[in-house]
Design brief:
alpha+beta; about 140 residues; Alpha-Beta Plaits; binds magnesium ion; binds inosine-5'-diphosphate; globular; 4-stranded antiparallel β-sheet
């Protein structure tokens, strides 16, 4: 079954939206199979965002993502990667779709409430970066 990594970013955690965001992903049919709270250090943040290291916003992004605790979650389901990103909406909250997580909870293009893996391959790598295999659970979601 496909898995994806979700991070609830410091802006959303500190504004009390963690539960609501997890709820939206569950409501979309995804199964929560891993969950933890942590504060990313610079090394983890730079690894996670390595594909963006040449971008002008990289330094600010590292500083933001390490600025406070985050919630990391693994969600599983058919098309989990795409489903999670659809529920999250576009990167820039001001352009995100009505009813999306970023539209409702994001502040600006940087402080946009959530991260979601962008492909199945990236998801596998990102899940491993944040979770040990024993921290991911197997169960059937009931109706
Ligand atoms: P995504 O999170 O929708 O996949 P990416 O392009 O992968 O978007 O960017 C990663 C993260 O970097 C975004 O979620 C956002 O926090 C931040 N970011 C993206 N573009 C900008 C920008 O133009 N200015 C500041 N931060 C940005
Ligand atoms: Mg991305």
């Amino acid at each position: 079954m496909e898995r994806t990594l979700v991070l609830i970013k410091p802006d959303a955690v500190e504004r009390g939206f963690s539960g609501a965001i997890l709820g939206r992903l569950e409501k979309a049919g995804l199964t929560l199979v891993g969950l933890k709270m942590l504060q990313m250090d610079k090394a983890l943040a730079e690894r996670h965002y390595a594909p963006h290291k040449e971008k002008g916003f990289f330094k600010g992004l590292i500083s933001f993502i390490t600025s406070g605790p985050i919630v990391a979650a693994v969600f599983e389901g058919e098309d989990a990667v795409k489903t999670a990103r659809t529920v999250m909406g576009s990167t820039d909250p001001s352009k995100a779709e009505a009813g999306s997580i970023r539209k409702d909870f994001g502040l600006d293009i940087e402080r946009n409430a959530v991260h979601g893996s962008d492909s199945v391959k990236t998801a596998e790598q990102e899940v491993m970066l944040f979770f040990k295999s024993t921290e991911i659970f197997n169960y059937t979601r009931k109706k």
